[in-house]
Amino acid sequence: QVQLVESGGGLVQAGGSLTLSCAATGRTFSDYAMGWFRQAPGKEREFVAAVSRAGRRTHYADSVKGRFTISRDNAMNTVVLRMNSLKPEDTAVYFCAADYTVTGATPTHGYDYWGQGTQVTVSS
């Protein structure tokens, strides 16, 4: 089992920045690719970003490319999502997720463990 706890959400004006953090406990953190997803009211949960086990590879949804940055610290068992130039359409509950993998993949689906989510609200 892997337990994931997100933090750092809040209310920000359009054009502002927020940094989300996810702390992992349980199994060996570096065995898991890590991802961020989001779900807006009335919409399905969608992929935002992923980072490979060693942190060498990243992958982003087109909607956040160039604005968001995902990174991880395997010594601290954390993954961070830095969000810049935020837009009202970024408003959602953001979830951290872990996917067990033996490769350097950056998956967009099929994650094994999920956090409870943190609310991000961007006002116009």
How would you describe what is shown here?
The chain contains no helices and eleven strands. It is an all-beta fold and 124 residues long. Strands 2, 4, 5, 6, 9, 10 and 11 form a seven-stranded mixed sheet that branches. The N and C termini lie far apart (40 Å).
| Helix and strand composition category | mainly beta
Report Rg: 13 Å
In whole angstroms, how far apart are the ends? 40 Å
Specify the helix fraction band: under 10%
Number of helices: 0
Count every beta strand, where a strand is a DSSP E run of 2 or more residues. Answer: 11
Coarse shape: globular
The fraction of residues in strands falls at over 45%
Which regions contain 5 or more consecutive residues with pLDDT less than 50? none
Overall mean confidence score, pLDDT? 96
User: How can the largest sheet be summarized?
Assistant: 7 strands, mixed
